[in-house]
Amino acid sequence: IYSDLRDSKPYLYFHFPNINVKLENGFYDFTFITNSEGLREVNDYNEIEKSVIYLGDSIIEGASLENHETLDSHFENITGITSLNFGLGSANTIQEYHLLKDKYKSSYNTKLVVLGFCLNDLPHNKITKYFDPNVGNWKVYDFYEEPTITGIVKSFIKKSKLILFVYNAINQKNHEAAANDRFSAKNYKKEAVDNTELYLNKISEFCKLIGSEFIVVIFPYESQLKNEKILKNQAQDVLKTILKKNNIDYIDLYEPLHFQYNNNKSIRWYHDDCHPYK
Asked: Residue 39 region, left (φ>0) first, then alpha (ψ -120 to 50), else beta?
């Protein structure tokens, strides 16, 4: 479902337009439909009186979900307001900004952009990834750093299979360490945090440019909800510090979901540790 756009777009990959394909792999069994713009929408849109854009990674795109089960579809059904799915699986805040800037049309008349922020974007905001159709998976494209000597060297060696293997192995270890430590704020490096702040501000400024409000919705991991106590100094707190500093509105779903999760244990809340269940 993903095209390789390394030669043409700064977000590096996107959905093929006009596809209707059934995806089956283990617990995954759903149909993925896109419109002529490659958005996960059944319909094409020309002039819209007003709309809401849902921006983000696979949580917004709707991993494991049918088109009508995605967050934007539910919002549209409840409110009657046209809601556009700008979600892109495995994207980070850097790529989401470029995608919004490129795909937005003035005819959408968007009044609100909702950025669904998955916590794995925090460590991932120091790299960009592309989709390799030869292996059917994502690979590191670039180390998104200021042009320091270290950054130049990393960019030079980024295509080395050995280097990428080592980098990905270290990154996986870091991710596992963060999970074992309940996503403690101390696990998030300054470089990734700075890039997150930079591109959240870029999205915010673009929203102002098009006359839209902007809000960030923070999704917790299921493993955070399993702890009976509300955990402090977590990844959410790192992100909220950035958002407060830059006067960006947000909704943190951690505490309300924690309450619901622990008081409604018969409900299946998550598809996996990251993705909310339908």
From this structure: beta
**Three-state SS at 65:** coil
Other C-beta atoms closer than 10 Å to the C-beta of 161 total: 8
Residue type, 135: V
Q: Side chain identity at 231, as an amino acid letter? A: L
As a whole number of angstroms, the distance between CA 243 and CA 201 comes to 9
pTM: 0.87
Q: Which residue has the tokens 């192995």?
A: 169
Cα-based angle 250, 2, 88 (whole degrees, multiple of 5): 5
pLDDT-based confidence at residue 139 (cuts at 50, 70, 90): very high
* HSE-CB of 24 using CA atoms within 13 angstroms: 1
pLDDT (tens digit per residue) in 173-203: 554 444 447 689 998 989 999 999 999 999 9
**Which residues have C-beta within 8 Å of that of residue 112, sequence separation ≥ 6?**
52, 53, 212, 213, 214, 215
Task: Give 124-135 pLDDT, tens digit per residue.
Answer: 999 999 999 999
Tell me which H or E stretch contains 216: strand 213-219
